[in-house]
Automatic annotation (TrEMBL):
Keywords from the named record: FAD, Flavoprotein, Oxidoreductase
Name of the featured protein: Gluconate 2-dehydrogenase alpha chain
Organism the protein comes from: Brevibacillus fulvus
Annotated ranges, domain Glucose-methanol-choline oxidoreductase N-terminal: 142-332
EC identifiers of the protein: 1.1.99.3
The organism's taxonomic lineage, starting at the top: Bacteria, Bacillati, Bacillota, Bacilli, Bacillales
Example GO molecular function: flavin adenine dinucleotide binding
Amino acid sequence: MATKLPHVPVVIVGMGWTGGIVAAELTKAGIKVVGLERGKERSTADYYMGHDELRYAQRYEMMQDLSKDTVTIRHNLKERALPYRTHGSFLLGDGLGGAGSHWNGQSFRFLPYDFEIRSKTIERYGEKKIPEGMTIQDWGITYDELEPYFDKYEKMAGISGEQEQNPMVGKRSNPFPTGPMKTTPSMKMFMEASKKLGYHPYIYPSANLSEMYTNPDGIQRAACQYCAFCERFGCEYGAKADPVVTVIPVALKTGNLEIRTQSTVTRVLHDGKKATGVLYVNNITGEEFEQPADIVMLGGFVFTNVRLLLNSKLGKPYDPNTGTGVIGKNYAYQLSGGAGGTVGFFDDKEFSNFMGAGALGAEVDDFNGDNFDHSNLNFIHGAGIRIAQAGERPIANNTVPKGTPSWGKEFKQQSIKYANRVLKVSMQGSSMPFRHHFLDLDPTYKDQFGLPLLRMTFDFEEQDREQVKFIAQKTAEIMKEMGPTTMQTTTELKPYDVTVYQSTHNTGGVIMGSDPSTSAVNNYLQMWDAENVFVVGASAFAHNSGYNPTATVGALAYRTAEGILKYIKQGGGSLV
């Protein structure tokens, strides 16, 4: 029997970027909030002298324990899904701050095209351009409508970037709060080569601060030290924007936020029309609690949000056979992990590849979104082409030319020779949703509490293979212009392999839109089927772009916070 706790105005499930942003905005307005986080407490002090590649990068210290909770994965409807038991294709974070603590810090805005993708594709190419089974749809909001929220997110996080407007990306109302990161020799080579080819390179927008910064909430943070321990690590300097050092302290300072860590929410409680609260388990004691609330906000990772709704029987589950239903619809991944990229080996040059930062790099977006003509191409959207200097750590850094043995004397010799003589021009490509790509509950496997695991049905499509072949040619052109001794380009996209790390950018499942029959939430991320439930995060994306999702997640979270305050002020009801 669950212990019923005192009623609160708002309960937030998951205290990462979305939970932290919404909590900060609500508590500053005087609203009492309880934040439930299934992981442990975290602070900057936990990362002091934490440059341990084995512990964090190889043994996944900050990631979810897959023996207790995971997803099951299959390629198609005919296969039996099996549990994801070893971190490979993507990394599931755990703990206060969520993925916002172990991310790299790359902070791109999605393109104007992304938010109106179906309308703009049909307008330019006709409806026949969209292949059968591809379920792209407009998001119910435009870039211009979301732009002020992007601006607010960037000022909070202190995003560093070039002050001049790049013609390939959405127009900005204000410059970045801080200047761009340093330009390394390899970045300079990439940018010069790209310009010679007529492209428009720019330095990454970065959540690794380029300079000392104080944000509008009075949070002061130090500049990046370029130590190369960003991805999979917390930042000991506080230079990387992280909910734990930005929005969560602001919320706690108001006295209106109570955070309960080690609290796993198992169900959203509801009466069929509105939520009444949540049910959660204390991971340490095993005790079960009911937390009543006027408003429930789900701010977990994509899989967490979708699974909670399905296990709570809240919203209509998606059915791939009929194409009806919305919870679990339009799951999308991303194209990266080596496919479409080009590796260059430089016998006559040496680079300081061991130095870097998670968001240190340069990007070309001439082949992203609809920035180029797709009339004679067998795919839509595209990819960002980039060079990164995140820092090559010693255990994982052993890129060698093809034909080199995978172990032994020659492998060691080549690893040492090319440790600082290899550059990679890579792609990060969009992922379009298809009718048979979706999330639902697994009929066989359950978690530590006896609840069904979430099941993912996904594989790469012809759309993806065509995109990789096209972008691979462009990465090869840029690398050739950079002058390597030898180079290798990967033009073939193989079937989705869950064992190889590719991207943690999973999206969809609780998608936004303007039609309740095809979307789960409106443009404030308020559920159509339960007006006092807001589902925030990349689960709202109706497809995945050629960018990292965090900036768009952050912008939508600020809009949701505004929506919740409006909902409270007007005494309930739909916000659109």
